Amino acid sequence: TRQAGGNSIVRYQEAMRLNLQRRRVLETELARALEKGELHVVFQPLVDLKDRRLLGVEALMRWQNDALGDISPAEFISIAEESGLIVEFGTWIMKQAMKEAMAWSEPLRLAINVSPLQFTAPDFVDAIQDALSETGFSPHFLDLELTESLFVDDRLQLDTTIDALKQMGCSLALDDFGTGYSSLGYIPRFPFSKIKIDKSFIDQVCDEGPQAAIVSSVVSLAGIFKMKVVAEGIETEEQEEKLRALGCDIGQGYLFGKPIRADGIAQLLKTAA
Ligand code: C2E
Ligand code: CA
Ligand code: CA
Ligand code: CA
Fold first, then answer.
1. How far is CA 14 from CA 4, 20, 56, in A?
2. Interface predicted TM-score (ipTM)
3. Where is the EAL domain (predicted)?
4. What's the 43 CA to ligand 2 centre distance in angstroms?
5. Scanning 17, 67, 133, 139, which has the fewest C-beta atoms within 10 Å of its C-beta?
6. For the whole model, what pTM was predicted?
7. Which residues, 6 or more positions from 183, have their beta carbon under 8 angstroms from its beta carbon?
């Protein structure tokens, strides 16, 4: 009826207004998050799928605000990207993660997410160089996780930056593979050492559907270009076994460990030793 339709439009408009309002509050708060010390870094284990040995960690950003509580990266990272704050945040987390990793009893590979805006900023290579020399972290243990969206725009001049990074000894990983609706043409053009299959493909890998076949074709593709395959979001032993059988090399997921603070990783190393 007209009555009900009218009400649902009002409800929709009200929801939109609240959405915008929250967004505006988040934007304002996020702009001061770094100086207020509200950001921190957590680390999630990456394990060898052969024997579950700890190979490295992925650094993930967290934001805790007094008034708003914990805000998930799914919500604040996109705001940070749109406002440009991600460049500053990205530089901060890189240095912070390296500094904290240096306290561990043995070196672990460190994967860091780099958003396209940060990667294409003119001083990106300098910022990495700076973080490495200030912390003493080895570039040979660094994996920069880049998403497909960076490679969609072929007007971007990426080669100089990528050459400089390779020269320094850093590695590149292709993150969230398969979620970006892009062609595969860019893959041979760039020296990725790892390809990460997004959790959305892993969730149903044990079901009858096409997910296992998709994983299997990513493994073949990776083989052609000598890339290691990382499966993200593994939650069950059944998935672990399936992914191992399909030929994935590295696993990440709650089954092996949730993202934790640096001291938790130090503890893991101590118990494993
Ligand atoms: P991502 O790069 O794909 O990171 C993996 C995400 O999957 C993380 O979410 C991680 O906590 C989650 N995850 C891993 N294993 C499991 C699992 O077994 N089950 C479930 N349910 N989730 C799992 P998180 O930390 O919420 O981060 C979300 C996204 O935010 C990241 O996705 C990444 O795109 C972005 N992000 C996080 N930190 C940073 C950062 O420092 N810089 C940039 N540019 N982006 C970041
Ligand atoms: Ca990632
Ligand atoms: Ca990602
Ligand atoms: Ca992902």
1. 15, 10, 46
2. 0.97
3. 23-273
4. 11
5. 67
6. 0.95
7. none
